[in-house]
Amino acid sequence: MAGSAGSLGSGLLSIQSAARQKSREAKESSDSDDDELFDSEKLKTKLMSMWNNMRHGFVVPFKAHFNEDSPIWLLGRCYHARNHEFSGVHSTEKCKVLSMDEFQRDFHSLIWLTYRREIPQLGDSMLTTDCGWGCMLRSGQMMIATGLVYHFLKREFRTTGRCMSREQEHFYKTILRFFGDLEDEERCPFSLHRLVSIGAHTGKQAGDWYGPASVAHILRLAMAGGTHPLLHNVNVYVAQDCTVYTDEVEKLCTSCRTHTWNCSDGKWQSVIILVPVRLGGEALNPIYIPCVKSLFTLDHCIGIIGGRPKHSLYFVGFQDNKMVCLDPHYCQAAVDMSKDDFPTQSFHSVQPRTMSFKKMDPSCTIGFYCDTKADFERFRQQTTEVLRPPMQRGDYPMFIFASHRKPMASEDFVRSANLSESLIESAEPERSNNSVPSPSTLSCSPSAEEYVVL
After folding, report:
1. Side-chain half-sphere of 412: how many Cα atoms within 13 Å?
2. Which of 29, 131, 312, 446 is within CB 3.0–4.6 Å of 135 for a Cys-Cys bond?
3. Is 327 tagged catalytic?
4. Is-catalytic flag, 329?
5. Catalytic residue among 135, 325, 331, 364
6. Helix, strand or coil for residue 271?
Protein backbone atom coordinates (compact mmCIF):
# COMPACT_ATOMS: atom_id res chain seq x y z
CA MET A 1 0.00 0.00 0.00
CA ALA A 2 2.80 2.34 0.93
CA GLY A 3 4.52 1.53 -2.30
CA SER A 4 1.31 2.17 -4.22
CA ALA A 5 0.79 5.48 -2.43
CA GLY A 6 4.37 6.48 -3.16
CA SER A 7 3.94 5.59 -6.79
CA LEU A 8 0.69 7.54 -6.93
CA GLY A 9 2.29 10.55 -5.27
CA SER A 10 5.26 10.53 -7.63
CA GLY A 11 2.84 10.16 -10.51
CA LEU A 12 0.88 13.22 -9.40
CA LEU A 13 4.11 15.18 -9.00
CA SER A 14 5.11 14.20 -12.51
CA ILE A 15 1.71 15.31 -13.88
CA GLN A 16 1.90 18.63 -12.03
CA SER A 17 5.44 19.18 -13.25
CA ALA A 18 4.40 18.44 -16.81
CA ALA A 19 1.42 20.78 -16.47
CA ARG A 20 3.65 23.61 -15.21
CA GLN A 21 6.06 22.99 -18.07
CA LYS A 22 3.22 23.12 -20.63
CA SER A 23 1.88 26.29 -19.03
CA ARG A 24 5.33 27.90 -19.22
CA GLU A 25 5.69 26.85 -22.85
CA ALA A 26 2.20 28.18 -23.63
CA LYS A 27 3.07 31.59 -22.22
CA GLU A 28 6.28 31.70 -24.21
CA SER A 29 4.68 30.68 -27.50
CA SER A 30 1.30 32.43 -27.66
CA ASP A 31 2.12 33.59 -31.17
CA SER A 32 2.72 30.03 -32.28
CA ASP A 33 -0.65 29.05 -30.78
CA ASP A 34 -2.33 31.70 -32.90
CA ASP A 35 -0.57 30.26 -35.91
CA GLU A 36 -1.78 26.78 -34.99
CA LEU A 37 -5.33 28.09 -34.63
CA PHE A 38 -5.02 29.77 -38.01
CA ASP A 39 -3.69 26.55 -39.52
CA SER A 40 -6.51 24.51 -37.99
CA GLU A 41 -9.10 26.87 -39.47
CA LYS A 42 -7.33 26.66 -42.80
CA LEU A 43 -7.31 22.87 -42.59
CA LYS A 44 -11.01 22.86 -41.72
CA THR A 45 -11.76 25.04 -44.75
CA LYS A 46 -9.74 22.76 -47.01
CA LEU A 47 -11.56 19.69 -45.69
CA MET A 48 -14.93 21.36 -46.31
CA SER A 49 -13.84 22.30 -49.82
CA MET A 50 -12.74 18.73 -50.49
CA TRP A 51 -16.07 17.42 -49.21
CA ASN A 52 -18.04 19.85 -51.39
CA ASN A 53 -15.92 18.97 -54.40
CA MET A 54 -16.73 15.30 -53.79
CA ARG A 55 -20.44 16.15 -53.60
CA HIS A 56 -20.61 18.53 -56.54
CA GLY A 57 -17.38 18.27 -58.51
CA PHE A 58 -18.09 15.00 -60.25
CA VAL A 59 -21.71 15.55 -61.19
CA VAL A 60 -22.24 14.71 -64.86
CA PRO A 61 -25.08 16.77 -66.39
CA PHE A 62 -27.64 14.28 -67.64
CA LYS A 63 -29.42 14.49 -70.98
CA ALA A 64 -33.02 15.66 -70.77
CA HIS A 65 -35.60 13.77 -72.82
CA PHE A 66 -38.23 15.93 -74.53
CA ASN A 67 -41.60 14.91 -75.89
CA GLU A 68 -41.48 15.17 -79.67
CA ASP A 69 -45.24 15.79 -79.82
CA SER A 70 -45.15 18.94 -77.66
CA PRO A 71 -43.61 22.38 -78.19
CA ILE A 72 -40.79 23.71 -76.02
CA TRP A 73 -40.83 27.33 -74.93
CA LEU A 74 -37.51 29.03 -74.21
CA LEU A 75 -37.63 32.69 -73.14
CA GLY A 76 -40.27 33.79 -75.63
CA ARG A 77 -39.32 31.39 -78.45
CA CYS A 78 -41.23 28.25 -79.45
CA TYR A 79 -39.49 25.09 -80.68
CA HIS A 80 -40.90 21.81 -81.91
CA ALA A 81 -39.42 18.52 -83.12
CA ARG A 82 -41.93 18.64 -85.95
CA ASN A 83 -41.36 22.16 -87.24
CA HIS A 84 -44.78 23.60 -88.10
CA GLU A 85 -47.13 26.42 -87.18
CA PHE A 86 -48.38 26.03 -83.65
CA SER A 87 -50.86 28.13 -81.68
CA GLY A 88 -49.58 29.97 -78.63
CA VAL A 89 -50.27 28.28 -75.30
CA HIS A 90 -52.50 31.08 -74.03
CA SER A 91 -53.05 33.06 -77.22
CA THR A 92 -55.11 32.66 -80.36
CA GLU A 93 -52.33 34.19 -82.44
CA LYS A 94 -50.00 31.99 -84.47
CA CYS A 95 -46.36 32.04 -83.44
CA LYS A 96 -43.28 31.10 -85.40
CA VAL A 97 -42.08 27.63 -84.50
CA LEU A 98 -38.39 26.80 -84.79
CA SER A 99 -36.61 23.48 -85.12
CA MET A 100 -34.93 21.54 -82.32
CA ASP A 101 -31.55 22.34 -83.84
CA GLU A 102 -32.38 26.00 -83.29
CA PHE A 103 -33.41 25.14 -79.73
CA GLN A 104 -30.00 23.58 -79.07
CA ARG A 105 -28.22 26.66 -80.47
CA ASP A 106 -30.42 28.98 -78.41
CA PHE A 107 -29.96 27.03 -75.19
CA HIS A 108 -26.23 26.60 -75.79
CA SER A 109 -25.91 30.39 -76.17
CA LEU A 110 -27.21 31.03 -72.64
CA ILE A 111 -24.44 31.82 -70.18
CA TRP A 112 -24.01 28.98 -67.68
CA LEU A 113 -22.43 29.97 -64.37
CA THR A 114 -21.64 27.19 -61.92
CA TYR A 115 -19.75 26.41 -58.75
CA ARG A 116 -16.04 27.16 -59.08
CA ARG A 117 -13.03 25.94 -57.13
CA GLU A 118 -9.54 27.43 -56.71
CA ILE A 119 -10.88 30.97 -56.94
CA PRO A 120 -9.25 33.87 -55.05
CA GLN A 121 -10.05 33.92 -51.35
CA LEU A 122 -13.53 35.31 -50.62
CA GLY A 123 -13.20 38.33 -48.34
CA ASP A 124 -12.07 37.61 -44.81
CA SER A 125 -13.04 33.96 -45.06
CA MET A 126 -10.70 31.13 -45.97
CA LEU A 127 -13.06 29.92 -48.71
CA THR A 128 -11.71 29.48 -52.23
CA THR A 129 -14.85 27.81 -53.59
CA ASP A 130 -18.60 28.36 -53.48
CA CYS A 131 -19.48 24.65 -53.63
CA GLY A 132 -22.46 23.83 -51.45
CA TRP A 133 -23.67 27.38 -50.74
CA GLY A 134 -23.36 29.75 -53.74
CA CYS A 135 -25.94 28.27 -56.12
CA MET A 136 -28.55 31.03 -55.62
CA LEU A 137 -25.92 33.69 -56.31
CA ARG A 138 -24.89 31.77 -59.44
CA SER A 139 -28.54 31.54 -60.54
CA GLY A 140 -28.91 35.29 -60.10
CA GLN A 141 -25.74 35.87 -62.07
CA MET A 142 -27.13 33.81 -64.95
CA MET A 143 -30.37 35.80 -65.07
CA ILE A 144 -28.54 39.15 -65.10
CA ALA A 145 -26.16 37.76 -67.74
CA THR A 146 -29.16 36.94 -69.97
CA GLY A 147 -30.46 40.49 -69.55
CA LEU A 148 -27.07 41.93 -70.50
CA VAL A 149 -26.86 39.69 -73.58
CA TYR A 150 -30.29 41.00 -74.63
CA HIS A 151 -29.08 44.53 -74.02
CA PHE A 152 -25.78 44.41 -75.90
CA LEU A 153 -26.26 41.56 -78.39
CA LYS A 154 -30.08 41.26 -78.72
CA ARG A 155 -32.30 38.20 -78.39
CA GLU A 156 -31.22 36.58 -81.67
CA PHE A 157 -27.55 36.32 -80.64
CA ARG A 158 -26.10 32.80 -80.90
CA THR A 159 -22.65 31.49 -80.05
CA THR A 160 -22.87 28.62 -82.55
CA GLY A 161 -24.14 28.12 -86.08
CA ARG A 162 -22.90 31.45 -87.36
CA CYS A 163 -19.78 33.55 -87.20
CA MET A 164 -19.53 36.21 -84.54
CA SER A 165 -18.26 39.60 -85.64
CA ARG A 166 -15.31 41.07 -83.78
CA GLU A 167 -17.64 43.56 -82.13
CA GLN A 168 -19.99 40.80 -80.95
CA GLU A 169 -17.08 38.76 -79.63
CA HIS A 170 -15.82 41.80 -77.72
CA PHE A 171 -19.20 42.42 -76.09
CA TYR A 172 -19.70 38.73 -75.33
CA LYS A 173 -16.35 38.33 -73.59
CA THR A 174 -16.90 41.60 -71.72
CA ILE A 175 -20.21 40.25 -70.40
CA LEU A 176 -18.54 37.01 -69.31
CA ARG A 177 -15.80 38.98 -67.57
CA PHE A 178 -18.47 40.92 -65.64
CA PHE A 179 -19.05 37.65 -63.73
CA GLY A 180 -15.43 36.58 -63.37
CA ASP A 181 -14.36 35.36 -59.95
CA LEU A 182 -12.01 38.26 -59.31
CA GLU A 183 -11.68 41.11 -56.81
CA ASP A 184 -12.11 43.73 -59.55
CA GLU A 185 -15.12 46.01 -59.05
CA GLU A 186 -14.89 47.72 -62.44
CA ARG A 187 -14.12 44.78 -64.73
CA CYS A 188 -16.11 42.21 -62.68
CA PRO A 189 -19.03 44.16 -61.15
CA PHE A 190 -21.14 40.99 -60.69
CA SER A 191 -18.40 38.68 -59.47
CA LEU A 192 -19.11 36.28 -56.63
CA HIS A 193 -16.64 38.28 -54.54
CA ARG A 194 -18.54 41.54 -55.03
CA LEU A 195 -21.95 39.96 -54.38
CA VAL A 196 -20.65 38.42 -51.16
CA SER A 197 -19.17 41.78 -50.18
CA ILE A 198 -22.53 43.52 -50.72
CA GLY A 199 -24.31 40.76 -48.81
CA ALA A 200 -21.94 41.32 -45.88
CA HIS A 201 -23.82 44.57 -45.13
CA THR A 202 -26.81 42.43 -44.09
CA GLY A 203 -24.74 40.19 -41.85
CA LYS A 204 -24.28 37.43 -44.41
CA GLN A 205 -20.83 35.99 -44.92
CA ALA A 206 -19.21 33.82 -47.54
CA GLY A 207 -20.60 30.35 -47.01
CA ASP A 208 -24.08 31.52 -45.95
CA TRP A 209 -27.15 30.65 -47.98
CA TYR A 210 -29.17 33.23 -49.88
CA GLY A 211 -32.81 33.41 -50.97
CA PRO A 212 -34.09 34.64 -54.35
CA ALA A 213 -35.41 37.94 -52.96
CA SER A 214 -32.13 38.73 -51.18
CA VAL A 215 -30.17 38.00 -54.35
CA ALA A 216 -32.44 40.35 -56.32
CA HIS A 217 -31.58 43.26 -54.02
CA ILE A 218 -27.88 42.37 -54.06
CA LEU A 219 -27.87 42.39 -57.86
CA ARG A 220 -29.59 45.78 -57.89
CA LEU A 221 -26.91 47.24 -55.63
CA ALA A 222 -24.19 45.68 -57.77
CA MET A 223 -25.62 47.35 -60.87
CA ALA A 224 -26.18 50.69 -59.11
CA GLY A 225 -22.55 50.72 -57.96
CA GLY A 226 -21.11 49.46 -61.24
CA THR A 227 -18.49 51.80 -62.68
CA HIS A 228 -17.86 50.07 -66.01
CA PRO A 229 -18.78 52.49 -68.85
CA LEU A 230 -20.96 49.91 -70.62
CA LEU A 231 -23.28 49.70 -67.61
CA HIS A 232 -24.12 53.39 -67.47
CA ASN A 233 -27.25 53.04 -69.60
CA VAL A 234 -28.81 49.95 -68.02
CA ASN A 235 -30.47 49.66 -64.61
CA VAL A 236 -31.92 47.05 -62.28
CA TYR A 237 -35.30 47.63 -60.64
CA VAL A 238 -36.59 45.39 -57.83
CA ALA A 239 -40.33 45.34 -57.18
CA GLN A 240 -41.53 45.78 -53.60
CA ASP A 241 -44.55 43.98 -52.16
CA CYS A 242 -45.17 42.20 -55.49
CA THR A 243 -45.86 45.56 -57.15
CA VAL A 244 -44.08 47.26 -60.05
CA TYR A 245 -44.52 51.02 -59.64
CA THR A 246 -44.34 52.63 -63.06
CA ASP A 247 -43.37 56.08 -61.77
CA GLU A 248 -40.38 54.58 -59.93
CA VAL A 249 -39.32 52.69 -63.05
CA GLU A 250 -39.56 55.88 -65.11
CA LYS A 251 -37.59 57.87 -62.55
CA LEU A 252 -34.89 55.19 -62.45
CA CYS A 253 -34.66 54.94 -66.24
CA THR A 254 -34.51 58.70 -66.86
CA SER A 255 -32.13 59.70 -64.06
CA CYS A 256 -28.41 60.15 -64.52
CA ARG A 257 -26.71 57.52 -62.41
CA THR A 258 -23.11 58.49 -63.05
CA HIS A 259 -23.33 62.29 -63.18
CA THR A 260 -20.65 62.44 -65.84
CA TRP A 261 -20.37 65.03 -68.57
CA ASN A 262 -21.79 62.73 -71.26
CA CYS A 263 -24.77 61.50 -69.21
CA SER A 264 -28.07 62.30 -70.93
CA ASP A 265 -30.45 63.08 -68.09
CA GLY A 266 -34.03 62.49 -69.21
CA LYS A 267 -33.20 59.96 -71.93
CA TRP A 268 -34.79 56.57 -71.29
CA GLN A 269 -32.31 53.88 -70.30
CA SER A 270 -32.81 50.12 -70.45
CA VAL A 271 -33.94 48.28 -67.34
CA ILE A 272 -33.85 44.76 -65.93
CA ILE A 273 -36.93 44.28 -63.73
CA LEU A 274 -36.75 41.71 -60.92
CA VAL A 275 -39.96 40.71 -59.13
CA PRO A 276 -39.61 38.57 -55.97
CA VAL A 277 -42.81 36.60 -55.39
CA ARG A 278 -44.10 33.74 -53.27
CA LEU A 279 -46.57 31.55 -55.14
CA GLY A 280 -48.04 29.54 -52.32
CA GLY A 281 -47.37 28.44 -48.76
CA GLU A 282 -45.24 25.37 -48.18
CA ALA A 283 -45.53 24.30 -51.84
CA LEU A 284 -46.27 25.91 -55.19
CA ASN A 285 -49.97 26.63 -55.56
CA PRO A 286 -50.96 24.85 -58.81
CA ILE A 287 -53.23 27.72 -59.85
CA TYR A 288 -50.09 29.67 -60.77
CA ILE A 289 -48.62 27.06 -63.11
CA PRO A 290 -50.49 28.45 -66.18
CA CYS A 291 -49.23 31.95 -65.27
CA VAL A 292 -45.62 30.79 -65.04
CA LYS A 293 -45.96 29.03 -68.39
CA SER A 294 -47.39 32.18 -69.96
CA LEU A 295 -44.48 34.29 -68.71
CA PHE A 296 -42.04 32.06 -70.60
CA THR A 297 -43.91 32.83 -73.84
CA LEU A 298 -43.16 36.57 -73.51
CA ASP A 299 -40.17 38.15 -75.26
CA HIS A 300 -39.41 40.27 -72.19
CA CYS A 301 -38.91 37.32 -69.82
CA ILE A 302 -35.29 36.53 -68.91
CA GLY A 303 -36.14 33.63 -66.62
CA ILE A 304 -36.86 32.77 -63.01
CA ILE A 305 -34.46 32.03 -60.17
CA GLY A 306 -35.71 29.71 -57.47
CA GLY A 307 -35.66 25.95 -57.65
CA ARG A 308 -36.75 23.33 -55.21
CA PRO A 309 -36.01 23.39 -51.46
CA LYS A 310 -32.25 23.48 -50.85
CA HIS A 311 -31.47 23.37 -54.56
CA SER A 312 -31.41 26.62 -56.58
CA LEU A 313 -31.98 26.56 -60.35
CA TYR A 314 -32.30 29.07 -63.18
CA PHE A 315 -35.53 28.37 -65.09
CA VAL A 316 -35.61 29.44 -68.74
CA GLY A 317 -38.59 27.61 -70.28
CA PHE A 318 -40.97 24.67 -70.16
CA GLN A 319 -42.49 21.74 -71.99
CA ASP A 320 -45.78 20.23 -70.85
CA ASN A 321 -45.51 19.96 -67.03
CA LYS A 322 -41.74 20.26 -66.81
CA MET A 323 -39.58 23.34 -66.50
CA VAL A 324 -36.35 23.71 -68.49
CA CYS A 325 -33.46 25.02 -66.43
CA LEU A 326 -29.76 25.64 -66.07
CA ASP A 327 -28.24 23.97 -63.03
CA PRO A 328 -25.30 25.64 -61.22
CA HIS A 329 -24.55 22.50 -59.17
CA TYR A 330 -21.49 21.47 -61.14
CA CYS A 331 -18.07 22.37 -59.80
CA GLN A 332 -15.50 23.57 -62.33
CA ALA A 333 -12.00 24.97 -62.05
CA ALA A 334 -11.61 28.75 -62.00
CA VAL A 335 -11.03 30.51 -65.33
CA ASP A 336 -8.29 33.11 -65.66
CA MET A 337 -10.09 36.06 -67.28
CA SER A 338 -7.17 38.47 -67.09
CA LYS A 339 -6.30 37.64 -70.70
CA ASP A 340 -8.42 38.49 -73.72
CA ASP A 341 -8.21 34.96 -75.14
CA PHE A 342 -9.62 33.17 -72.07
CA PRO A 343 -11.60 30.00 -72.95
CA THR A 344 -15.41 30.27 -73.01
CA GLN A 345 -16.34 26.59 -73.27
CA SER A 346 -17.01 26.18 -69.55
CA PHE A 347 -19.71 28.88 -69.73
CA HIS A 348 -21.91 26.83 -72.08
CA SER A 349 -24.17 24.06 -70.86
CA VAL A 350 -24.46 21.41 -73.53
CA GLN A 351 -27.57 19.69 -72.15
CA PRO A 352 -30.62 21.28 -70.51
CA ARG A 353 -32.15 19.92 -67.35
CA THR A 354 -35.84 19.61 -66.52
CA MET A 355 -37.87 19.66 -63.32
CA SER A 356 -41.54 19.13 -62.63
CA PHE A 357 -43.60 22.21 -61.82
CA LYS A 358 -44.89 20.38 -58.75
CA LYS A 359 -41.39 20.33 -57.25
CA MET A 360 -40.84 24.08 -57.69
CA ASP A 361 -40.53 26.01 -54.45
CA PRO A 362 -43.07 28.88 -54.18
CA SER A 363 -40.37 31.45 -53.35
CA CYS A 364 -38.72 32.78 -56.51
CA THR A 365 -37.71 35.93 -58.41
CA ILE A 366 -38.94 36.60 -61.95
CA GLY A 367 -36.80 38.62 -64.35
CA PHE A 368 -37.68 40.82 -67.35
CA TYR A 369 -35.74 43.08 -69.71
CA CYS A 370 -37.13 46.25 -71.32
CA ASP A 371 -35.05 48.15 -73.86
CA THR A 372 -37.03 51.36 -74.41
CA LYS A 373 -39.97 53.19 -72.89
CA ALA A 374 -42.26 51.81 -75.59
CA ASP A 375 -40.89 48.37 -74.83
CA PHE A 376 -41.69 48.85 -71.13
CA GLU A 377 -45.28 49.87 -71.96
CA ARG A 378 -45.65 46.79 -74.16
CA PHE A 379 -44.21 44.64 -71.38
CA ARG A 380 -46.70 46.03 -68.88
CA GLN A 381 -49.64 45.44 -71.18
CA GLN A 382 -48.69 41.90 -72.20
CA THR A 383 -47.66 40.81 -68.71
CA THR A 384 -50.84 42.10 -67.05
CA GLU A 385 -52.88 39.79 -69.27
CA VAL A 386 -51.24 36.61 -67.95
CA LEU A 387 -50.67 37.35 -64.26
CA ARG A 388 -54.08 36.26 -63.01
CA PRO A 389 -54.72 32.52 -62.64
CA PRO A 390 -57.41 31.42 -65.12
CA MET A 391 -60.82 30.18 -63.96
CA GLN A 392 -60.43 31.30 -60.35
CA ARG A 393 -63.16 32.95 -58.31
CA GLY A 394 -60.82 35.25 -56.45
CA ASP A 395 -58.40 37.80 -57.92
CA TYR A 396 -54.93 36.55 -57.00
CA PRO A 397 -52.37 37.86 -59.53
CA MET A 398 -48.71 36.86 -59.26
CA PHE A 399 -47.86 40.56 -59.01
CA ILE A 400 -49.42 43.83 -60.11
CA PHE A 401 -48.57 47.17 -61.72
CA ALA A 402 -49.40 50.50 -60.06
CA SER A 403 -48.82 54.06 -61.21
CA HIS A 404 -47.31 55.14 -57.91
CA ARG A 405 -46.88 54.12 -54.30
CA LYS A 406 -49.84 55.22 -52.19
CA PRO A 407 -49.00 56.46 -48.69
CA MET A 408 -50.61 54.59 -45.83
CA ALA A 409 -51.44 57.85 -44.04
CA SER A 410 -51.86 61.56 -44.81
CA GLU A 411 -48.79 63.68 -45.54
CA ASP A 412 -49.36 65.75 -42.35
CA PHE A 413 -49.42 62.57 -40.28
CA VAL A 414 -46.26 61.28 -41.96
CA ARG A 415 -44.46 64.58 -41.31
CA SER A 416 -45.46 64.57 -37.65
CA ALA A 417 -44.42 60.94 -37.32
CA ASN A 418 -41.05 61.70 -38.91
CA LEU A 419 -40.60 64.60 -36.48
CA SER A 420 -41.39 62.33 -33.53
CA GLU A 421 -38.94 59.74 -34.78
CA SER A 422 -36.22 62.35 -35.11
CA LEU A 423 -36.86 63.59 -31.58
CA ILE A 424 -36.47 60.13 -30.07
CA GLU A 425 -33.57 59.35 -32.43
CA SER A 426 -35.33 56.34 -33.90
CA ALA A 427 -33.11 53.93 -35.75
CA GLU A 428 -35.92 52.77 -38.07
CA PRO A 429 -34.71 53.22 -41.70
CA GLU A 430 -36.80 55.06 -44.25
CA ARG A 431 -38.15 52.63 -46.84
CA SER A 432 -37.09 53.38 -50.38
CA ASN A 433 -37.56 51.20 -53.42
CA ASN A 434 -34.46 51.67 -55.50
CA SER A 435 -32.16 53.93 -53.54
CA VAL A 436 -29.22 52.31 -51.75
CA PRO A 437 -30.83 50.50 -48.81
CA SER A 438 -29.73 49.98 -45.29
CA PRO A 439 -29.00 46.40 -44.24
CA SER A 440 -32.52 45.93 -42.86
CA THR A 441 -34.04 47.09 -46.14
CA LEU A 442 -31.83 44.75 -48.13
CA SER A 443 -32.97 41.78 -46.11
CA CYS A 444 -36.64 42.71 -46.32
CA SER A 445 -37.59 39.36 -47.80
CA PRO A 446 -39.25 36.99 -45.35
CA SER A 447 -36.97 34.56 -43.63
CA ALA A 448 -39.06 31.70 -44.98
CA GLU A 449 -37.67 32.18 -48.47
CA GLU A 450 -34.09 31.84 -47.30
CA TYR A 451 -34.22 28.04 -47.29
CA VAL A 452 -34.56 27.85 -51.10
CA VAL A 453 -30.85 27.52 -51.65
CA LEU A 454 -27.91 25.08 -51.83
Report:
1. 0
2. 312
3. yes
4. yes
5. 135
6. strand
